[in-house]
Design goal:
238 residues; 5-stranded parallel β-sheet; 3-stranded parallel β-sheet; alpha/beta
Amino acid sequence: MTRAETFRALHRGRLPDDPLVLPGPWDAASARALADAGFPALAIPSAGVAASLGYADGETPAEEMFAAVARIARAVDVPVSADVEDGYGLPPKELVERLLEAGAVGCNLEDSDESGLKDAHAHADRLAEVRSAAAGRLFLNARIDTFLRGESDPARTIERAALYVEAGADCVYPIGAPVAVLPLLRSGTRVPVNVFARIGEGPSPAELGELGATRVTFGPGLQWRATAAVTEIAALLR
């Protein structure tokens, strides 16, 4: 079984109180620490990588992002998925090739950019092209930014999810969805649902699973916590 097949299998047959928990490494050292802790797969956050490289979120050059993904993937023996924002304007075939060369088995692709939400049908067409180019070698997680962009009606999110699933998305990621609407989103979606969690705040991963999460990710939360710890240590040293 390839790493991509292993990663896809991790999403299947999960009990409601046992979602797939995917912490987010930002470099090789953090990836090794998380893999050694027993996590079966990892999900690289673009914001965490950006911070580690000295960039603001969304401003990491594509070359540096793919290089960071490659360093992380080489450092561990578990499957690694990567958040590649909106794909950096790369044609689908090139985007897939770059991800595979870096050793990723999956990716997040966002449906918004600096101008706001993208046309859902156009984005679905792009996802379909990525899916075709990947030919089963990548797990495609379609991030839905409706809630981030101020769209509070869950129906709009479900509509986008349906388009993206039809296009071949393996999973949908309604980032920022209020906890109260998770059961509705779960019931209206035919594929696994990725839910964002804040470390130490709100429902636990098991509780999010009961509400409808198939998998739980934390964005750059771990990197933020690590930076806070270094700040505290630095204060002691001074």
